[in-house]
Amino acid sequence: MTRVQANLLLLLAGAIWGAGFIAQSTAMETLGPIWFIGLRFVVATFVALPFALWEKARAASAVRPVNMAGFVLTGLALFAAAVFQQIGLLTTTVTNSGFLTGLYVVFTPILTVLVLRRRPHWIIWPAAFLVSVGIFLLSGGTLAALTIGDLLTIFCAVLWSAQMICVGVFAGRSGRPIALSLVQFAVCGVLGCAAGILFEPVSLAAIKGALPEILYAGLFSSGIAFIFQNVAQRYTTAPQAAIFLSSEALFAALFGVLLLGETITPAGYAGCAILFAAMLAVELVPELLRTRRPGLPVEV
What we know:
Elements: H1 3-27, H2 33-58, H3 65-88, H4 94-101, H5 104-116, E1 119-120, H6 124-138, H7 148-174, H8 177-199, H9 204-209, H10 211-232, H11 238-245, H12 247-260, H13 266-288, E2 298-299
Parallel strand pairs: 1-2
Helix pairs in contact: 1-10, 1-11, 1-12, 2-8, 2-10, 3-7, 3-8, 4-7, 5-7, 5-11, 6-13, 7-11, 8-10
């Protein structure tokens, strides 16, 4: 797979997540957020299982214990990010949540430098700024007064960045991106259902009422989209992946218009254009200006 193909796969994952935002928001009408997280990832585990068995049958060797530990760590980061986002939505607005979650495009290159000691291509920094501006405009161009929910959502963005970095490290190191998907889904499913039993009431009627959203999120938003992410990140970098996955905000707005009859303001259209320009810059500039400088290794 080429880098261009990998980035297009990440763009498709962003589109699936964008549509999934609608399912996620409507599911909360009947089902608690923790139960929704747990059940969607249980479904995602069963989606990934046959592909993981197929991958295992063709693998040259078993997954090493250190990589398996990394798979579990990735799942913990994913679960924590999902939980902080859902809890944050209880005391913040959807507008604030959408913008603040998108800050992972800024945190990912920062964590890449601090944790992995890898310097992203210079275009990542202006592109991350443009993406932040684009999401801000797309979400309405305003922020309400910051609440505890906003702070939780900012921490969620840091955790999303950590999850992306873990995927980049362990999917590439192990050569088993679907096994990574299976393990992280299982971790989220088990922890989500266990936490749901402890902290949230649930009934069969509530699960039945949210079943279409659970199935969509489990099959597509969790199962297929995260598998796309894990496979694609073997051929691109975490900072680039963050840029392309941020298209989730663009597609969420688009599907909101098409499916829910929502409208996009002129500022929102400007935000869409800025997001698109940032993704084009990340894809084209490294190809046009391939330079390496001494010091930390540069990730293209």
